[in-house]
Amino acid sequence: MRDLVLTIGMLFYTPLSVIAPAAGLAVWEWFSLFSPHRLVYGFAFGKPLNGIIAAATLAGWLISKERKRFTPDALPWFLLAFFVWSTINMAFAPYPEYSWKYWNEAMRSFVPVFLVFVLMTRKTRIHGLVWAIVIALGFYAVKGGLFTIIHAGASDRVYGPPDTQISDNNMLALAILMQLPLVFYLTRYTQEKLLRIGLWFAMVLEMISVLGSYSRGAFVAGAAMLAMFWWRSKNKILYAVLGSLVVCATLSLMPAAFWERMNTLHHVGKDTSFEGRVQAWHVAFGYAKDHFPFGAGYNAPALSSIFNYYEPGAVLHVAHSIYFEVLGDQGFMGLAIYLFVILLSFRNVRIVIWQTRDRPDLAWAHDLANMIFVGLVAYCVGGAALSMAYYDGYLLLVALTSSLREITNPAYSEAANNPLLLRPWQRAWKLPAPNGRAAAGKLMRGVPTAHNLRPGKSP
C-alpha cells in the first residue's frame, strides 16, 4: 500500500513540477531529505523515484520564463567553485573509481541547491521550501521523540532511514538540530492555531529525539544552538525560563545510561572512539599536506591503503569532522573554499538583518535569517565531530541566506519596478541593479526625480 501511495504521489507531482518548477524544487528537496523510498517494502523500495521529479523540475525550469541566473552575491559562485574543484580534484585522486560513487551522491545534493539560488525569489516560495524541510526531517524527529518516551530513554538509540546521509544516530541528531530553529520560525508565521500548537509539540519531541540519539556531538551542538537562540532572541527572560523548564523536564526522562555516555566527554583522552577520530584527522591532514593542494577524493581517506599508510595497524575510521572530511577529500584548496562559503553565509545573514531593520513588511525575512543563523551555528559546532560536509540540509540553509539577501535588498525591489534604474543589458535580461542602494543611486544620476528638479523646471 505504501508503494502505491508513493508512486501515485510522484506521478501527481510530476506535471506540477513542469508547470511550477519552484513547487517541483520543494518536492525534490522533500524527497531528498525524507527518503520515503526507504520506508516502503514492495516494488518502490530503493527506486530512484526522485529522479522523475528532478527531471520534470529541470525541464519545467528550462522551458519556463523563470530567470536563468543566480542571486547577485558571491556565495553561489563560491559554492559552484567548490563543486568544480571537487570534480577537478578527482583527476588527481588515487582511487577515482571508488570516489566517483560518492561524487555522484554529492552532485545530487548540489544540483537542487543551485536551483534554490535561481527560483527562491519570493516569500511564498521560501516558505514552501522551509515547510518541505521541516516536514521531511520533522517526521523522523517526532517519531524518534515518541520512541524515546515509550522506551523511557533506554539505550535503544534513535536512527534515521537506512542507506541515507542521516541513517546514523549522530547525523540524524545534527540534522534535527539544524531544522529545529525553522520549526520555531513557523510557529510565529503560521495562522492556523491548531497547526501552531502541533509545531510547539513537535519542537519538544524533537529535542527529546536528539537526546534519544545518545549523540555526544549533538548534545554539545544542542547546547550551542540553545545558547545562540537565547542570545539572538528579544524576550531573553521569557525564553530563559521556558527553555530551562523544557530542558530540565526533558533531561529528567533520560536514564543513567544516557548520563554515563555524556560523562565520557570529561574523559575524551581515554575514549577509543575519540582516539580513532584523532587518527582520522591525522590521516586527512597528512595526505593533504603531502599532495598539496589536492585531496584523496570523496571518502577515499577511509580506505585502508591510505589510512594505514599514515596510521599503521589502526582501525579504519571516517573523518568524523566536516572540516577534516573536506581537507582529506578535497585538499587545502577545497577546505579554503568550503570555509569561505560558510563565512559568506554568516555574512549574508548579517546583511539581511541590517536590510530589514525597521521594516515591518520584511519582519519575516529578519526572523528567518536569525533562525538560519542559529541552525548554521549548530551545524558548525556539531559538524566538528561528524562527517556531514556535503549534507543537503546544510546546503539549503546556505542557499536560503543568499535568496533572503536578494529579496530584502532595497535596490532589488526598486529596480525591478523601475526600468530607469537598469542599464540596457539589465533591462534585456530583467536583472536588478547589483549593489544595493549605492548602485541604485549611481544609476539614478541624471534621471529626473522630484528631489533633483529645480522649481519651475520640467523634466
Explain briefly what this protein structure is.
This protein has 459 residues and is mainly alpha-helical.
The structural domain count equals 3
**Strand-and-helix sequence, N→C?**
HHHHHHHHHHHHHHHHHHH
Q: In total, how many beta strands?
A: 0
Number of helices: 19
Distance between the termini: 70 Å
Computed over alpha carbons, the radius of gyration is: 24 Å
* Beta-strand content bin: under 5%
> Which of globular, elongated, flat, extended, rod-shaped describes the shape?
globular
How helix-rich are the residues, as a percent range? 55-70%
**What ranges have pLDDT less than 50 throughout 5 or more consecutive residues?**
421-459
Structural class: mainly alpha
Mean pLDDT: 85
Major sheet details:
none
Describe what you observe in this structure.
With 459 residues, the protein is mainly α. It has three domains: 1-66, no CATH class; 69-269 and 316-408, no CATH class; 409-459, no CATH class. Helices cover 68% and strands 0% of the residues. The chain has helices at residues 2-19, 21-34, 50-63, 75-89, 96-119, 123-150, 169-188, 193-212, 216-232, 236-251, 256-263, 272-290, 304-310, 322-355, 363-382, 392-408, 410-417, 424-429, 436-444. Residues 421-459 have low confidence and may be disordered. It is globular, with a radius of gyration of 24 Å.
SSE arrangement:
Elements: H1 2-19, H2 21-34, H3 50-63, H4 75-89, H5 96-119, H6 123-150, H7 169-188, H8 193-212, H9 216-232, H10 236-251, H11 256-263, H12 272-290, H13 304-310, H14 322-355, H15 363-382, H16 392-408, H17 410-417, H18 424-429, H19 436-444
